[in-house]
């Protein structure tokens, strides 16, 4: 009987320990594990924007550098500008003509100003893309423009990516009075 009582106690103690372990698993471990998984998901969701912030900072730095280069270029262009009051309307008209013709202006590259006896001569290289008909229409509209613009040179080549599109480099010449020497 002593053995039966001892076995009974062992079973009772083992059952109590097993019940406590089961209660611990059900009441503490599983909810804690689920809560920990939730917290890890929240942390990962909050960490993701921080992980991309390095790329954003690099992009901001690159953009600021590009802005600085652009501001220097604009400053240089303003000092060499052949027509301070007439340039903006002329460029606006070129942009409007390009839109009407269905052409996209890709680049405007001003050349140094030439001061002649009574006039100033400014050159501008314009690169645009569009269909051949659209580029032709754009060049025709420039020639018909009320601005003092001459088409000096045209180079047209087939665009590498799009079928039917061309890239045109157009040399434009603009004239303005040379106020110092005008009579």
Class of secondary structure makeup: alpha+beta
In the predicted model, the low-confidence regions spanning at least 5 consecutive residues are none
**Number of separate strands:** 5
Determine and state the CATH class of the largest domain.
Alpha Beta
Note the run of SSEs as H and E: HHEEEHEE
Helix content: 55-70%
CATH homology superfamily of the largest domain: Ribosomal protein S6/Translation elongation factor EF1B
- Taking all Cα atoms into account, the compactness measure Rg is 38 Å
Overall form = rod-shaped
CATH architecture assignment of the largest domain? 2-Layer Sandwich
Return the CATH topology of the largest domain: Alpha-Beta Plaits
Strand content: 15-25%
Average of per-residue pLDDT values: 82
Count of structural domains: 2
> Distance between the terminal alpha carbons, to the nearest Å?
136 Å
The biggest beta sheet is recorded as: 5 strands, antiparallel
Number of helical elements: 3
């Amino acid at each position: 009987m002593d053995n039966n009582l001892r076995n009974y106690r062992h079973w009772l103690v083992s059952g109590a320990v097993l019940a406590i372990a089961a209660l611990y698993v059900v009441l503490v471990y599983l909810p804690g594990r689920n809560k920990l998984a939730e917290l890890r998901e929240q942390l990962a969701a909050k960490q993701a924007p921080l992980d991309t912030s390095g790329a954003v900072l690099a992009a901001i730095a690159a953009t600021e550098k590009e802005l600085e280069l652009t501001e220097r270029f604009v400053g240089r262009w303003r000092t060499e500008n052949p027509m301070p009051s007439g340039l903006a309307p002329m460029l606006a008209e070129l942009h409007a003509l390009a839109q009407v013709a269905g052409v996209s202006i890709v680049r405007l590259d001003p050349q140094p100003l030439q001061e002649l006896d009574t006039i100033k001569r400014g050159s501008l290289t314009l690169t645009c893309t569009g269909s051949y008909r659209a580029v032709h229409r754009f060049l025709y509209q420039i020639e018909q423009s009320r601005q003092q613009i001459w088409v000096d040179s045209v180079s047209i080549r087939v665009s590498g990516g799009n079928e039917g599109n061309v890239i045109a480099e157009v040399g434009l010449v603009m004239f303005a009075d040379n106020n110092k020497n005008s009579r």
